[in-house]
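pls design
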């Protein structure tokens, strides 16, 4: 059963997902050539991305939202999810600001100005000079995410996660990017890893709560994760959005229980 694409927000979300999936499909060949994917995993991901991209493209052409991984339908739930996306974008900006504070914009890890004052070029150069530097990877990923380049950000977050499996930020934000693309199972896999790496990392709990709510329709699990965020970050930048989503989840659970 599909729902009509009857708001600009629905169409915009589908367009973002379309672009994400098409770029991901292009990236798969390069990752296989680089030895990062074996043939079996390449085929599995290619089939999954292609099927999902086809569904999204049909939706954009025919005016219907695709099935299981569709963005939230219009209404209170959609509004709350949209507010959460905006909030996380703001957090990405905060993360970016902290990265910019590590070195002067335009400087590489050696301190030399080789980017003409372009912080994006500076972050990219830092990764080029020190590809095994987790902090450099994370700084570049934050910049890419805040700049609206989720595919490239995901690549850097995944690289950081491979370099440091104990880092929670990398799989947490990688999982959130995949969640926004509608790839809920893959998102939850990364978010599970983030929580396991550091149970006290608040953002991972918020992201996992959203993924459980929308990907698994697990209201109880979502509520537990959202409460965990509030307990760990009572004054965190996402507090108001988390409280709003939690209230909606609890209200829905109450209605179901009462029915």
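designed seq:
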């Amino acid at each position: 059963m599909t729902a009509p694409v009857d708001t600009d927000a629905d169409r915009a979300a589908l367009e973002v997902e379309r672009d994400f999936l098409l770029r991901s499909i292009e990236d798969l060949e390069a990752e296989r050539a680089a030895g990062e994917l074996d043939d079996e995993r390449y085929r599995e991901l290619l089939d999954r991305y292609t099927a999902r991209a086809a569904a999204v493209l049909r939706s954009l052409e025919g005016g219907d939202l695709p099935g299981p991984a569709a963005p939230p339908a219009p209404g209170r739930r959609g509004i709350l999810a949209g507010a959460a996306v905006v909030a996380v974008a703001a957090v990405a900006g905060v993360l970016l600001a902290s990265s910019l504070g590590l070195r002067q914009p335009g400087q590489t890890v050696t301190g030399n100005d080789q980017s003409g004052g372009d912080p994006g070029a500076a972050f990219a150069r830092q990764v080029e000079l020190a590809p095994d530097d987790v902090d450099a990877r994370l700084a570049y990923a934050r910049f890419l995410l805040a700049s609206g380049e989720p595919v490239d950000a995901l690549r850097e977050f995944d690289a950081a996660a491979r370099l440091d499996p104990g880092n929670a930020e990398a799989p947490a934000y990688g999982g959130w990017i995949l969640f926004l693309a509608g790839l809920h199972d893959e998102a939850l896999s990364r978010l599970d890893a983030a929580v396991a790496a550091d149970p006290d990392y608040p953002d991972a709990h918020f992201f996992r709560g959203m993924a459980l709510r929308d990907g698994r329709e697990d209201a109880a699990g979502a509520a537990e994760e959202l409460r965990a965020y509030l307990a760990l970050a009572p004054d965190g930048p996402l507090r108001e959005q988390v409280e709003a989503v939690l209230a909606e989840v609890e209200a829905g659970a109450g209605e179901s229980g009462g029915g």
